[in-house]
Amino acid sequence: MIVAHHFAVHGGFDFSTESITLNRLWIQLIALGGRLGNDIFVMISGYFLVTSSSVKIRKVFYLWSEIFFYSVVIFWLFNLLGARSFSIKEAIKNFMPVTRNVWWFASTYFVLYLIHPYINVILQNLKHEDYKKFLMAILVYWSIIPTFLLSNFNGSSLVDFICLYSIAGYLRLWASNFGGKKYILYGISFAALNYLSAIGLDILGVKFPLAGKNAMYFYNMMRPFTILSALCLVIGFRKLRIEYCRLINLIASATFGVYLIHEHNFVRPFLWKSVFMNYSFQDNPYLIPYSIAVILVVYVTCTIIELLRIKIFSVCVRVMALR
């Protein structure tokens, strides 16, 4: 979902608001999954971490080392191959990827993990009614008002993550009975409503260009339908009984690495604009199959790279342990 989103939003597409084409609708459809995927990732974290009482140093180091590894390796690869000119400023940024925000999501998530035990102290000590009032305040001040009154209260991605974390925390602490496949259908339905909002703005945009240019306005992480869709999907899947599958867990272990590889600020323009030249397919009748093929190629390739990194790191750790 997130790779598809990046194909759509970083591909250089520039559709006219004067007409509604199949390719435009397709790009808006695959763009839908990005922010939704972000919400799901943070909510899953909140669901499992809300009962935690401390930060695990091993996890901090593992997360930091993965971020640092890709930041430094990609920086040197692009410089050694002549794809980028060496810059002291870029070097400092890539050798300090968390504090210099090479990946906004990774940096924000890293900070969230560091402070989550302190968030938990507050959440675990809230009475049920107070927790519900707290969530209501979150949804009103960081979702409803910003969406419909265009005011974000000087929010940040960390505030957004804490809000999503708290929503999932409530699910774990106070709503353990909710679940079932019907919630997956609810989640898909809310996502469909989000997509319909884009189509509606497309239609308005034919006469009012500003509406068309902001057709994906309701896709944001903290927009109501995005939150509801992510929440319902998390609720639905937590009650599913899926037998253990090594392949699923193997692929899942590489997902964060997939994000780090293809969304580095050196790789992003090189991948979507130089290698695959997404924009050149804007009016091409083969855009849909082409985009599906490219998304799969990027996902599979990055997964293989990350699994190789995990294997090499694990071997190195075992060798060091033997010494």
Describe the structure concisely for a colleague.
This protein is mainly α.
Low-confidence stretches: none
Work out the radius of gyration.
Answer: 21 Å
| Structural class designation | mainly alpha
Estimate the strand proportion.
under 5%
Q: Please, what is the average pLDDT?
A: 94
Quantity of strands, as a count:
0
Describe the structure.
This protein is 72% helix and 0% strand. With 323 residues, the chain is an all-alpha fold. Helix 7 (128-149) packs antiparallel against helix 8 and helix 9 (181-205) packs antiparallel against helix 11 (224-238). The longest helix is centred in the last third of the chain and has 36 residues, at 287-322. The N and C termini lie far apart (43 Å).
Topology:
Elements: H1 2-9, H2 22-31, H3 33-49, H4 57-80, H5 88-95, H6 104-125, H7 128-149, H8 157-174, H9 181-205, H10 209-213, H11 224-238, H12 246-252, H13 255-262, H14 267-275, H15 287-322
Helix pairs in contact: 1-2, 1-3, 3-8, 3-11, 4-5, 4-6, 6-8, 7-8, 9-11, 13-15
List keywords for this structure.
mainly alpha; globular; 15 helices; 323 residues
